[in-house]
Amino acid sequence: MQHRRLGRSAIVVSDICMGTMTFGSQVDEAEAFRVLDRSYDAGINFYDTAEGYPVPPDIKWVGRTEEIVGKWLKTKPRDAIVLATKVSGPSHVWFRSPCRNGMTALDRRNIETAVDASLKRLGTDYIDLYQTHWPDHDTAYDETMEVLHELVQAGKVRITGCSNETSWGLMKSLATAEKLGTVRYQTIQNNFSLNNRRFEDELAQVCRKEGVSLIPYSPLAGGVLSGKYNGGARPDGARFSRYLAMEGRQAAMGKRFVNDRSLSSTERFMAIASEAGHDAVTMAVAWSKQHDFVASTIVGVGAEDQLDAMLGAADLVLSDEVMKAIDKVSREIPYPMG
User: Fold this and answer.
1) Per-residue b or e along 230-267, where b marks 16 or more CB atoms closer than 10 Å to that residue's CB
2) Antiparallel, parallel or unpaired: β 157-163 and 12-14
3) Averaged pLDDT in 10-residue chunks for the chain of 338 residues
4) Closest CA to 175 of 142, 134, 202, 129
5) CB 149 within 8 Å of CB 159
6) For residue 327, what are the CA distances in angstroms to 227, 230, 331?
7) Residues 6 or more apart in contact with residue 241 via CB below 8 angstroms
8) C-beta of residue 192 within 8 angstroms of C-beta of residue 215
9) Which residue out of 53, 130, 141, 217 is catalytically annotated?
10) From CA 334, how far away is CA 338, in angstroms rounded?
11) Strands 82-87, 127-132: parallel, antiparallel or unpaired by DSSP?
12) What is the pLDDT of residue 77?
């Protein structure tokens, strides 16, 4: 397992991070513990959760993921774990957070309320990386960055980051932090995969020039890059099998991830992996890690047996030939997820 620094901070993490968003819904506590233990034994020291987990967001189980992670955390030396969690951003028209009855925003009250509740569920007195879960462009960045700064000064948080942020939002936050003399975002957690390379268009340059690390989520494009949806397959229990049978936001998301272009590119990526002697899942995770602006790639599983292919990427460096073949597919099928 390789290690990299988060932004310009003192925190160094394994270049694979274990995500937990299904713990408490799809994955029960016993299975979650097995996944976490195997991850730890494999050398992963970085774990990501959120106050709004598990998914799908629902008031009946919101907060359960942090509770499970908190119970597991007590079985390990606290200083051996780099723990990340998130505060919910605003509930937009297309999404209503189950936290605080949907009354979420990145203002002082919500951030202070959220961090205290997360600390209690996690059973710890500090969070290593505290992230804003999605941006709140209608709330002044001055207020957001000031309260995050106070949390660091109080010892509740070590460093801060953002998630699902735009180029404008990331630069605005950095400029605000510089103006006010507050903490800055050291990380950004956005979607990034072989099927979704939009981060490279602008945000990658921001990260390189400003010393911010990407910790990408969904390196398998929601599981699509495993090939399980190829040929029109709709596996029982799979996320997009459910979403494509629904309406509204879920159906729209399903069609974004599973469509003719994304399935075509997936088939070609799988052929590249096969020819190189790699598992397709392993190649997808290794590709994500093989970027200079990436600190750690977040993986997630629905069962312990899915870990093997992901952990296989720990020390894998893809050859120049494989990287060129991947780039050729991306040029010929640009933006398969739109």
Assistant:
1) eeeeeeeebbbbebbeeeeebeebbebbbbeebbebbe
2) unpaired
3) 97 98 96 98 98 92 98 98 96 78 93 98 98 93 98 98 97 98 98 98 98 98 96 89 84 93 98 98 98 98 94 97 98 97
4) 142
5) no
6) 19, 21, 6
7) 234, 235
8) no
9) 53
10) 8
11) parallel
12) 98
The token duo for 111 is 């951030």
H or E element that contains 285:
helix 280-289
Provide Rg for the chain, Cα atoms.
Answer: 19
- Spatial CA neighbour of 104 closest among 60, 146, 57: 57
Alpha helix ranges (H) inside 90-237:
108-122, 141-153, 167-180, 203-210
Q: What domains can be seen in the chain, in order of their start residue?
A: 3-189 (3.20.20.100)
Q: Token digits for 130? A: 């505290």
Beta-carbon contacts of 84 under 8 Å, excluding residues fewer than 6 positions away, are: 17, 46, 47, 48, 49, 127, 128, 129, 130, 131, 161, 215
Neighbours of 272 (CB within 10 A): 22
Residue 94: per-residue pLDDT: 63
Residue 16, H or E segment:
strand 16-19
Reading the block at residue 290, the tokens are 């093989």
Of 72, 67, 61, the residue nearest 33 (C-alpha): 72
Q: Look up 53 and say whether it is catalytic.
A: yes
Tokens at 231, concatenated: 């040929």
Residue 308, both tokens: 């093997």
Distances (CA, A) of 109 to 115, 144, 218: 10, 10, 31
CA geometry: angle 60, 66, 71, nearest 5 deg: 115
